[in-house]
Q: What sequence folds into this?
């Protein structure tokens, strides 16, 4: 497991602590871990609401080390977090409060077993910083991790705006005219077209049935003899 230590050296140089102690190096490491999780420092105190006067920073605020117990305020997205810390023997107990839903997470770290030197690189000052980072991920930083996962799930479950989806209207089979309906419509528009070819003598129709412009005139039709004596065609 590799950890990018960018920002650590700058943070240590910015510490205005006199004298610089192991306790303060440890607090600086916890602060640096929160900054790596995208939190921003907004001062000290117990105020749970964000104020217009709050200024975001990646450095520890002035005066944070005046008391044995301290409260550092942080901003993550739109939520305010408060990091509480106090020394108990050779151990510092840290508690991180999410002021949005009042969930907390905590951890306890032995000072002398963790911080070995007050100067040098991070590896020299805290040789077990990789192991310590893993411990913070599973304890103190769980409040941040839960918030990140919750926000990620909320974005995934966001419903799609159906107004943005273009639909192509496909006519149903019932709306498409059948062949029989088409023929009926054509016959309705052209009632006599082709009638004379199929029924030249106009049986069951008027003598004007048939192609327009022609007519058949049957003379001397004898039903008793079943024949036509003379048939004459004339044009209109």
A:
């Amino acid at each position: 497991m590799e950890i990018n230590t960018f920002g650590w050296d700058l943070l240590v140089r910015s510490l205005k602590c006199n004298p610089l102690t192991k306790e303060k190096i440890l607090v600086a490491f916890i602060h640096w871990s929160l900054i790596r999780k995208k939190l921003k420092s907004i001062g000290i105190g117990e105020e749970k609401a964000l104020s217009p006067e709050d200024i975001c920073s990646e450095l520890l605020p002035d005066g944070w080390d005046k008391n044995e117990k301290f409260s550092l305020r942080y901003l993550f997205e739109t939520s305010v977090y408060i990091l509480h810390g106090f020394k108990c023997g050779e151990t510092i107990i840290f508690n991180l409060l999410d002021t949005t839903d009042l969930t907390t997470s905590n951890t306890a770290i032995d000072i002398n077993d963790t911080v070995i030197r007050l100067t040098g690189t991070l590896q020299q000052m805290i040789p077990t910083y990789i192991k310590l980072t893993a411990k913070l991920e599973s304890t103190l930083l769980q409040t941040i991790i839960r918030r990140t996962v919750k926000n990620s799930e909320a974005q995934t479950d966001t419903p799609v705006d159906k107004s943005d989806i273009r639909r192509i209207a496909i006519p149903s089979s019932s709306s498409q005219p059948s062949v029989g309906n088409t023929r009926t419509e054509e016959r309705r528009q052209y009632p006599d077209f082709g009638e004379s070819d199929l029924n030249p003598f106009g049986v069951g129709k008027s003598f004007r049935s048939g192609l327009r412009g022609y007519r058949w005139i049957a003379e001397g039709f004898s039903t008793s003899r079943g024949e036509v004596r003379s048939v004459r065609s004339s044009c209109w």
Remarks:
- The beta strands are 40-44, 70-76, 79-88, 91-98, 103-110, 214-222, 227-235.
